[in-house]
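[Meeting: bench + compute handoff]

Bench side (C.D.) handed over the final construct sequence. Compute side (W.E.) agreed to return the predicted structure before the next meeting so the bench team could plan truncations. Sequence as handed over:
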Amino acid sequence: MEPTPRIILFYYAVMTLLITSGISAAGFVLNNSLVLLVGFIFWIIWFILIFVILMPQTEQFLSERFRQLKRGALIIFIFVFVLGLFEGISAAVFFPRLIQDNKIPGDFRSLLTGLKEVYQYNDATALSQQAVENLLKGENPYAHANIIEGLLKYHGEYNRVTPLRVGAFSNDFPYPTDTALKQLWDKAIQTPSQVPPELENRVCYPAGSFLLPAPFIWLGITDIRIVYAIFVLLGLAYALWVIPKQKRLLFIGVILISLDLWNSIAGGETGSLCFALLLVTWLALNRNLWLSAIFMGLAVTTKQTAWFFLPFYLILLFRTQGVKKLFIVLFIIGGLFFFTNLPFIVANPDLWLASITSPMTDPMFPVGGGLTIFVTGGVINIQSPLPFSILEGIAFIGTIFWYFRYGKRYPQTGPILAIIPLFFAWRSLWSYFFYAAIISLAYIMANENTTQKTLYSGINNLSSSPQNVKIVHE
């Protein structure tokens, strides 16, 4: 099986994403409205490119440009792979030295500091590992969360917290200044047991977020990021197992240069655990329904992001395998969610509910690369998340209806459609988006049937000529 043009085109999507996330991160760190808006435009371009890749009709349009696409993909692979090595070495060796150099301009020093902190615990990571350790001590993780103690223990920085629009920050908009955060932090660490109300201090995820890592921490792994990496590698291993062997090196190449994925793992992004579960869920749907259902159940009890994927998963299941299997899978998913969360619901139902709904109900500041960029960039003055929630809901309903009608013809669009509503959300964090593209790519590569003879034998053959590219409708 010859790699098809749209799969090769994914290398260009990876490069676009790298540019997009870099611009958006720089705009946030430097608090520069123009840079944030440029990042927003690049997010739109990335989404369009992903949908072009997902449409089988793209094969016919690009078939005559296949040779040039493969050469360009080879260049991108080499460039980004070297860039990734340079990034890792710089963050470990050069950035700390430059940050301490007083001759470096302030804005550039702030940017380097932000890049370096990508590899440090954020508040969600610290609270998740703290939750695991509290569980192993026999304590209710939801009742013993303490973000101050967690970040101090795991060497997180003051600006890795999630501030709330209360108290000292009630009049700060669109986001508290770095100075204000530092002052609050310096005061809070004097009495770590008393967390100020201006900081999010809940274990915000369902129980799977700490139950799944618990055995690994119990076995002696002291860094939850290692646990996340293990899950991701296992998920990718399953993807490689189901992807035809003639395309595996191509998929490995994409993963190697997906710097956003590796940066998120290095920083302990909690979504990486959910990503691994959703990856297996989607790939196993047509191969092992029990495995797929179990992993979707684990995903929805790990992070609320998976809840957006669930309707599309169920629609695809219903449209391809019927209502009987739909109810069986619903029973498995519901049972896993109920079973894993029941002890904590019984222990303190109000606390459990307040914790897992806190990302939607707590007064958080707008942040991210989606539509909310017009607020954080100062283009419009909207201080309520309600308009964004309405738009998010409309987008969610619209994508569900579209997938119900066309999902059987375009099943690979499900993961991307699931994240489109988040682009309209009050908090449209960048980490919500890129995982879905990898899931869709893996689905295409695992399920795409072609009759062409394979000439591909690895990354070094990216510049070879095409052979009878065939249009495929998944």
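W.E. noted at the follow-up: Strands lie at 367-368, 427-428. C.D. will use this when planning the next construct.
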